[in-house]
Amino acid sequence: MEETTNSTGIFAEMEELAAAIERDPAGMAGSWARWRGGCFDEVRVDYGSGMGDYIVALAAGNPETLFVGVERELFCIVKAARKAIDAGLANVVFVPSENRTLAGLFAPCELSRIYINFPTPYPHARDADKRLTHLDNLLECRGLLAQGGQLFLKTDSVALFDFARAQLDLAGYRIGWQTSDLRVERPEDPQTGYERRTIARGAKILALEAEPTGLSGTPEQTAALSLFDYLPEDLESLDYVPLDMERSVRSAIDAKRRVEEGRRRREGGR
Ligand SMILES: C[S@@+](CC[C@H](N)C(=O)[O-])C[C@H]1O[C@@H](n2cnc3c(N)ncnc32)[C@H](O)[C@@H]1O
């Protein structure tokens, strides 16, 4: 996503949109249900909320629930907060997350639901721990979910979905529901901004709901960490390349071609 406002402008805009932006989220840990004098039945988080379309749509239909969008990009926070204010909603707030985790922003068991919609894939193994669906992050989310709380994931990437299922299993979650075509199974689920772009390119949306179960000890990472390990060997056979993985799939295909051309040249020169 491209930044459209310079940083001075962004801070001025954030001041202007203070009604839907919390600048001291750590100070709210444990008391989000009473945010700005409200009395909410539950608190749900959209982790990596982007332009905010998803929780703004959900908040409109669930006034008794507080929706918190956690996002690291300030230009997204500004756009999302403006949507919430324009919609006249008092139950949605956006939080800039400088340290990239939910740790410290929420108290243990404070959340009834965590949505992770179209998380950034970081396809290479060296960046796997930056994925919101990485084991370490899922373990952290566990601690924040209330009894019966759930984690909800949507993606256009089969590779990321399969990686996430392996990580959820290690982190002691039970997958209660999953689909390989969310739009058919739950057409009422609001589309995120990113989701609309992937659907326009022909994506089928994969989704799941998972709930923490008993977990003894600290699980060890045993899954393959590169998303390429979850893709077919012949990348050119893919019918659909996930939007955020286009560049890395293209360079993997080019690299393989270069290796093959080099091999053919060497063999031809013999
Ligand atoms: C592909 S976009 C999806 C945005 C939105 N969920 C949607 O579906 O339209 C991924 C978003 O996650 C944000 N993000 C990635 N890692 C994050 C982190 N550790 N903490 C907060 N936001 C993060 C990115 O800045 C980006 O806005």
Can you offer a commentary on this structure?
- This protein has about 270 residues and is α/β, with parallel strands linked by helices.
- It has one domain (about 5-270): 3-Layer(aba) Sandwich (Rossmann fold).
- It is built from 9 helices and 7 strands, in the order ααβαβαββαβαβααβα.
- It has helices spanning about 5-15, 25-30, 55-60, 75-85, 135-145, 160-170, 180-185, 195-200, 245-270, and strands at about 40-45, 65-70, 90-95, 110-115, 145-155, 175-180, 205-210.
- Helix 3 (about 55-60) links the parallel strand 1 (about 40-45) and strand 2.
- The longest helix has 23 residues, at about 245-270.
- The termini are far apart.
- The protein binds S-adenosylmethionine (SAM).
- S-adenosylmethionine (SAM) binds near residues 70, 73, 100 and 118.
Strand order of the largest sheet: 3-2-1-4-5-7-6
Q: What pattern of helices and strands is seen along the backbone? A: HHEHEHEEHEHEHHEH
Low-confidence residue ranges = none
How much helix is in the residues?
Answer: 25-40%
Task: Kindly report how far apart the N and C termini lie.
Answer: 49 Å
Number of domains: 1
Structural class: alpha/beta
Amount of beta strand:
15-25%
Bound molecules: S-adenosylmethionine
For the report, how would you describe the main beta sheet?
A: 7 strands, mixed
Nearest-integer average pLDDT: 94
* Helix count, DSSP H or I runs of 4 or more residues: 9
CATH homologous superfamily annotation: Vaccinia Virus protein VP39
Q: Calculate Rg over CA atoms.
A: 20 Å
How many beta-strand runs? 7
Q: What general form does the structure show?
A: globular
CATH domain fold name: Rossmann fold
